Amino acid sequence: MKRIVLFGTGNVATHLFEAYKNSDNFKIIQVYNHASETLQAFKDQVAITTNLDELAPADIYIFALKDDVLAELSKKIKETDALVLHTSGAVSKEVFHKFKNHGVFYPLQTFSKNKEVDFSNIPICIEANTKANTNSLKELGSEISEKIFEISSQQRKSLHVAAVFVSNFVNFLYTEGEKICQDNLIPFEILHPLILETASKVTKMSPMESQTGPAKRKDQDVINSHLELLNEEQQKIYSLLTQSIQNLHGKEL
Fold first, then answer.
1. DSSP per-residue string spanning 15-79
2. How far apart (Å, rounded) are the C-alpha atoms in residues 207 and 200?
3. Which pLDDT belongs to residue 114?
4. Which of 132, 69, 61, 148 minimizes the C-alpha distance to 99?
5. Cross-strand partners of 107
6. Of 5, 51, 216, 246, which is most buried, counting CB atoms within 10 Å of its CB?
7. End-to-end CA gap in the chain
8. pLDDT along the chain (253 residues), means of 10
9. Is 83 helix (H, G, I), strand (E, B) or coil?
């Protein structure tokens, strides 16, 4: 059984901890975080520490931390022959170049602590500095997921940008849609079937083919009536997206 020390107590770290909790081949033996209060959720299940000098010997160290602390924290970690990984979508594996064995273990999903996920369907993007370490990452990933992809640092950066478009930006638009519903005393749940159908459709056909709506139809009367209902910031967003959709589909606003 390979021993894992997990760095972090946030969304990704929490779900990784749960995913490996019942593994027969990998065991998380310790969780590190700089703030003791965030470790309390783990204290009855595993060893915890806020002291880098107290890190347990392990085969794998997984840094599930904010991107901006990886470089600085790596300087404080003693050199080791263990496989040192981070879970970032935007940071190169070279941030851990000081370690003989290093790589990236990036689960491509949106995580919230209180929302369960099925890790078996989550794509895990891996990259390592040697073929042997790549094979180790495949074993680590295959323990919890059926979808393992070898993705380079440059590809991962582009993938992360794409993920921001299809997840973070879309979620922001959900928020704006919810505000419009709330302002007009409409239950947001009325839109749930539409949201699910739109998301489902792009898994079966290209987003380009599945585009519908007044912007694609160049229905200016509807567009104008929508703009009248929106506040200034929403009008900017609506107009920009409408223009972009029509540019993509070869129509002028």
1. HHHHHHTT-SSEEEEEEE-S-GGGGTTTTTTSEEES-GGGPPP-SEEEE-S-HHHHHHHHHHSPP
2. 11
3. 84
4. 61
5. 124
6. 5
7. 61
8. 96 94 95 94 94 96 94 92 96 94 96 88 96 98 96 93 96 98 97 97 94 94 96 97 94 49
9. strand
Q: In this predicted structure, what is the pLDDT of residue 253? A: 46
Neighbours of 147 (CB within 10 A): 15
- Report yes or no: 58 and 29 within 8 Å, Cβ to Cβ: yes
Would you tell me how many other CB atoms lie within 10 Å of the CB of residue 105? 23
Q: What DSSP designation does 84 have? A: E
Q: What is the pLDDT of residue 196?
A: 96
Strands (E), the chain: 2-7, 26-32, 47-49, 60-63, 83-86, 101-107, 124-128, 148-150
Strand bridging mode 47-49 / 101-107: unpaired
At residue 251, the pLDDT reads: 55
Q: Can you read off the two tokens belonging to residue 126? A: 């891996």
Distance CA 158, CA 175 (A): 25
Contact 44, 30 (CB under 8 A): no
d(CA 179, CA 229): 12
Give me the sign of the Cα torsion angle 168, 171, 177, 182.
Answer: negative
> Cα dihedral angle (222, 224, 228, 232), rounded to 10 degrees?
120
Q: Rounded to whole angstroms, how far apart are CA atoms 238 and 230?
A: 9
> What DSSP assignment string belongs to 224-253?
HHHHHHS-HHHHHHHHHHHHHHHHHTT---
Q: What is the largest CA-CA distance in the chain?
A: 67
Residue 239 burial (C-beta neighbours within 10 Å; 0-12, 13-18, 19+): middle
